[in-house]
């Protein structure tokens, strides 16, 4: 049993996990590149693979040992993370309508009951 199993049981579609403890600085470097490639539309396993290659190409020879970079595994849904622009457009439209309604209400209320008459 692993912690990844708990995430899957709670509804996660995919998990990136390590097989053993690794250095925090190494982990930060690999994960930042992983998220960079993920944001470019790569599949999760390809993004992890490219992040490991970048780590190997850009670090000291003392960090080439697989102990530092080979612990990461991708489990579950391997599809790329997509960004749905329709949701953002809809949310922005709703926010704009709410702001417009609030401004109309405020100015009408101010005209009906001016602050000077109180």
Structure explained in plain terms:
With 118 residues, this protein is mainly alpha-helical. It is built from five helices and two strands. Strands 1-2 form a two-stranded antiparallel sheet. Helix 2 crosses helix 3. It is elongated, with a radius of gyration of 25 Å. The chain starts with a helix and ends in a 6-residue tail after the last helix. The model has no long low-confidence stretch (mean pLDDT 84).
Low-confidence stretches: none
Radius of gyration: 25 Å
The main sheet comes to: 2 strands, antiparallel
Q: Please tell me what the overall shape is.
A: elongated
The amount of beta strand, in percent, is 5-15%
Mean pLDDT: 84
User: Which structural class should the secondary elements be placed in?
Assistant: mainly alpha
Q: Strand tally, please? A: 2
Sequence of secondary-structure elements: HEHHHEH
Distance between the termini: 70 Å
Please bin the fraction of helical residues. 55-70%
How is the largest sheet built, in terms of strand order?
A: 1-2
Q: Helical stretch count?
A: 5
